[in-house]
Write a structure and sequence with these properties.
The chain is an alpha+beta fold. 60% of the residues lie in helices and 9% in strands. Strand 4 and strand 5 form a beta hairpin. Among the domains are: 80 residues; 79 residues, PDZ domain (Pdz3 Domain), CATH 2.30.42. Helix 10 packs parallel to helix 12. Strands 1, 2, 3, 4, 5 and 6 form a six-stranded antiparallel beta sheet that branches. It starts with a helix and ends with a strand. It is extended.
Length: 393
């Protein structure tokens, strides 16, 4: 982590030095004939309407001098910053070296260093110096567990600023590499006392810093013990975005075997909608005969979602107190036509809704239990369902 900052500063200093050197090599300016004001050293007349060049030349040389001074000041600032950064890295290396034979940090020394860094980071945030704050924050994270407790609220503060007015001027490109640390995320995920906002942040960040295989291994273990339902949902959602259906399915099936509650098992089965491999297919088929009727129903629905008998909009949820609920639409219904328009894509459904006169009665054709049903609803922006367009394999 430290080397990136050192290289960046080194590159900036080099660029500034080159710029200053280029200005220093410029000629001192054209020779001006005091008698004529010509800039070529001759005594001939200047073209009509051009005026004296003396003022222009003096102004140009003054501007160049100011620019040279500004560049030299930048060089000095960046050099100082680079030296300070190098000093910080030496201190961190010393802390690491003060540990045991495994290279572990000395907790007391690391805690002292973390306490020293905290006000400096807050001071940098106060003066809106995002880059300095990230540099110091990176050093706090490098201290290991003694630095994590102080780093987490600061990470959340910076993240909140990024999502808002971004007064710190920090980009995602700068932020995530600075705070992306596998050990930090694992620490947060295995400690329920850590701020839930950061634990969710860690859930989504873990695959990017540790790789999908490590994330799946961690998720599988966590699902057996995690008590926060929102964290569980985030874990399952994050698993759905990790490439590799077979690996993902195996992790979910393993988590299912460890799950201690029926509700968690239901959630895991729902997550298998996003996989299409043979192992999960066999597993879901076996669950359709489960003694738990609700679980068996969930497995059948998941199989239908993955491979519907007809193309259309598969209903995953019917919201209460809506037209859809009043008209008798059910989860698992497949909308195949809207007011006579076949639904061969999500866009087709949106266009059919837009073409309907608001308030008019329209007919929705659904496929349910091997039969087609016509249901009448009022044309509105939403009839109260959620789902996705699906096609048979």
């Amino acid at each position: 982590m430290a080397s990136k900052m050192t290289v960046f500063l080194g590159g900036s200093v080099l660029g500034a030095f080159l710029g200053a050197a280029a200005l220093a090599l410029l000629p001192p300016g054209p020779v001006v004939n005091p008698a004529t004001g010509n800039a070529d050293g001759t005594g001939g007349e200047r073209p009509a309407g051009t005026g004296s060049a003396t003022g222009d030349i003096v102004e140009l040389r003054s501007a160049l001098a100011r620019e040279r001074e500004a560049r030299e000041a930048t060089v000095a600032q960046l050099t100082a910053a680079r030296e300070e950064s190098a000093r910080y890295q030496q201190e961190i290396a010393a802390l690491r070296g003060s540990g045991d034979a495994t290279g572990a940090h000395d907790p007391a020394a690391a805690a002292r260093r973390s306490a020293e860094l905290d006000p400096r980071i807050r001071e940098a945030l106060g003066r809106k110096d995002g880059r300095a704050a990230l540099d110091l924050l990176r050093q706090m994270i490098a201290l290991g567990e003694p630095g994590y407790a102080g780093a987490i609220p600061l990470i959340l503060q910076i993240n909140e600023d990024m999502e808002g007015a971004n007064t710190l001027g920090i980009s995602m490109h700068d932020f995530y590499p600075a705070v992306g640390d596998t050990d930090l995320y694992l620490f947060a995920l295995h400690d329920p006392s850590v701020d839930a906002r950061f634990r969710e942040f860690a859930v989504w960040g873990l695959p990017w810093v540790s790789g999908g295989a490590k994330a799946l291994e961690t998720y599988t273990s966590l699902l057996a013990t995690e008590s926060d339902p929102e964290i569980v949902d985030s874990i399952l959602s994050s698993m759905a975005h990790i490439p590799g259906d077979e690996t993902k399915s195996r992790a979910l099936i393993d988590a299912y075997g460890r799950a201690g509650t029926g509700e968690l098992r239901h959630r895991i089965v729902r997550s298998l909608r996003n996989t299409e491999d043979a192992e999960s297919e066999t597993f879901l088929q076996s669950l359709t005969q489960d003694p738990d009727a609700d679980l068996a129903r969930e497995a059948r629905f998941t199989l239908t979602y993955r491979n519907p008998p007809v193309q259309g909009f598969v209903t995953t949820r019917v919201f209460p107190n809506t037209q859809a609920a009043a008209a008798g639409l059910q989860r698992g219904d497949i909308l195949v036509a809207y007011n006579g328009t076949p639904l061969d894509s999500t866009e087709a459904l949106n266009q059919a809704k837009q073409a309907s006169t608001p308030g008019s009665v329209i007919r929705v054709t659904v496929y349910r239990d091997s039969a087609y049903l016509n249901i009448e609803v009022e044309a509105t922006e939403s009839i109260g369902i959620d789902g996705a367009y699906r096609e048979p394999k």
